[in-house]
Amino acid sequence: MGRLDLIVEILGEAIESALTRVENRRSRAIQWLRETTRPPPGLLLHAPDGSVFTGLVLVDSNRAVIVLALRRLPQDQPRPFVDVQSEFPFNHRGASSPGADDLQGRLRY
Q: Which of 32, 54, 82, 107 has its CA 20 to 30 A from that of 14?
Protein backbone atom coordinates (compact mmCIF):
# COMPACT_ATOMS: atom_id res chain seq x y z
CA MET A 1 0.00 0.00 0.00
CA GLY A 2 1.50 3.36 -1.00
CA ARG A 3 1.59 6.60 0.94
CA LEU A 4 -1.28 8.10 -1.02
CA ASP A 5 -3.52 5.12 -0.26
CA LEU A 6 -2.62 5.36 3.43
CA ILE A 7 -3.41 9.11 3.52
CA VAL A 8 -6.75 8.58 1.77
CA GLU A 9 -7.64 5.78 4.21
CA ILE A 10 -6.72 7.91 7.26
CA LEU A 11 -8.73 10.87 5.91
CA GLY A 12 -11.71 8.60 5.22
CA GLU A 13 -11.66 7.22 8.77
CA ALA A 14 -11.31 10.74 10.23
CA ILE A 15 -14.30 11.97 8.22
CA GLU A 16 -16.37 8.93 9.18
CA SER A 17 -15.50 9.43 12.86
CA ALA A 18 -16.41 13.14 12.66
CA LEU A 19 -19.74 12.35 10.99
CA THR A 20 -20.53 9.79 13.70
CA ARG A 21 -19.85 12.41 16.42
CA VAL A 22 -22.05 14.96 14.63
CA GLU A 23 -24.87 12.42 14.29
CA ASN A 24 -24.59 11.51 17.99
CA ARG A 25 -24.76 15.19 18.99
CA ARG A 26 -27.74 15.75 16.71
CA SER A 27 -29.54 12.74 18.18
CA ARG A 28 -28.89 13.96 21.74
CA ALA A 29 -30.06 17.48 20.82
CA ILE A 30 -33.29 16.15 19.29
CA GLN A 31 -33.93 13.96 22.34
CA TRP A 32 -33.30 16.93 24.68
CA LEU A 33 -35.66 19.10 22.63
CA ARG A 34 -38.40 16.46 22.75
CA GLU A 35 -38.10 16.15 26.52
CA THR A 36 -37.95 19.87 27.29
CA THR A 37 -40.83 20.88 24.99
CA ARG A 38 -43.25 18.18 26.15
CA PRO A 39 -45.88 19.84 28.36
CA PRO A 40 -46.64 18.36 31.76
CA PRO A 41 -49.52 15.87 31.83
CA GLY A 42 -52.90 17.54 32.25
CA LEU A 43 -51.79 21.05 31.20
CA LEU A 44 -54.76 22.79 29.58
CA LEU A 45 -55.20 26.46 28.79
CA HIS A 46 -58.63 28.07 29.16
CA ALA A 47 -59.72 31.30 27.45
CA PRO A 48 -62.24 33.39 29.47
CA ASP A 49 -64.60 33.65 26.46
CA GLY A 50 -64.46 29.91 25.73
CA SER A 51 -62.37 30.27 22.56
CA VAL A 52 -60.25 27.35 21.44
CA PHE A 53 -56.76 28.05 20.07
CA THR A 54 -54.49 25.96 17.86
CA GLY A 55 -50.91 27.13 17.47
CA LEU A 56 -47.88 28.17 19.49
CA VAL A 57 -47.86 29.90 22.87
CA LEU A 58 -44.87 31.42 24.68
CA VAL A 59 -45.47 31.39 28.43
CA ASP A 60 -43.64 33.37 31.11
CA SER A 61 -44.52 32.80 34.78
CA ASN A 62 -47.75 31.01 33.78
CA ARG A 63 -48.88 33.94 31.61
CA ALA A 64 -49.14 33.72 27.83
CA VAL A 65 -46.91 36.50 26.50
CA ILE A 66 -46.88 35.58 22.80
CA VAL A 67 -49.62 33.66 21.00
CA LEU A 68 -49.28 32.67 17.36
CA ALA A 69 -52.45 30.66 16.90
CA LEU A 70 -55.74 30.29 15.10
CA ARG A 71 -58.77 31.11 17.23
CA ARG A 72 -62.11 29.32 17.07
CA LEU A 73 -64.98 31.01 18.89
CA PRO A 74 -67.58 28.93 20.73
CA GLN A 75 -70.50 27.84 18.54
CA ASP A 76 -73.06 29.97 20.42
CA GLN A 77 -71.02 33.20 20.19
CA PRO A 78 -71.90 35.53 17.28
CA ARG A 79 -69.17 36.18 14.74
CA PRO A 80 -68.02 39.80 14.33
CA PHE A 81 -68.73 41.67 11.10
CA VAL A 82 -66.24 43.54 8.93
CA ASP A 83 -67.46 46.59 7.00
CA VAL A 84 -66.46 45.59 3.48
CA GLN A 85 -67.11 49.09 2.06
CA SER A 86 -64.51 50.69 4.30
CA GLU A 87 -62.03 47.80 4.24
CA PHE A 88 -62.37 46.70 0.58
CA PRO A 89 -64.28 49.33 -1.42
CA PHE A 90 -63.78 47.68 -4.85
CA ASN A 91 -64.88 44.36 -6.29
CA HIS A 92 -62.65 42.24 -8.54
CA ARG A 93 -63.31 44.51 -11.57
CA GLY A 94 -62.45 47.74 -9.75
CA ALA A 95 -66.03 49.01 -9.36
CA SER A 96 -67.59 49.76 -5.99
CA SER A 97 -69.27 46.77 -4.43
CA PRO A 98 -71.97 46.72 -1.73
CA GLY A 99 -70.45 43.64 -0.07
CA ALA A 100 -70.37 39.90 -0.26
CA ASP A 101 -72.73 38.68 2.46
CA ASP A 102 -75.45 41.30 2.81
CA LEU A 103 -76.70 44.56 1.33
CA GLN A 104 -75.02 46.69 4.02
CA GLY A 105 -71.56 45.61 2.84
CA ARG A 106 -70.75 43.51 5.90
CA LEU A 107 -68.73 40.34 5.54
CA ARG A 108 -69.07 37.55 8.10
CA TYR A 109 -65.83 35.69 8.81
A: 32
| Distance (Å, whole) CA 7 – CA 19 | 18
Distance CA 16, CA 10 (A): 10
Maximum alpha-carbon separation in the chain: 89
- How do residues 36-90 score in pLDDT, each as one tens digit? 888 889 888 888 888 888 999 898 998 889 999 998 888 766 666 655 555 555 5
CA distance 53 to 67: 9
C-alpha torsion sign, points 28, 30, 35, 36: positive
| DSSP of 31-98 | HHHHHHHSPPTT-----TT--EEEEEEEEETTEEEEEEEEEE--TTSPPPEEEHHHH--B-TTSSB--
Of 64, 63, 107, the C-alpha closest to 88 is: 107
Overall pTM > 0.85: no
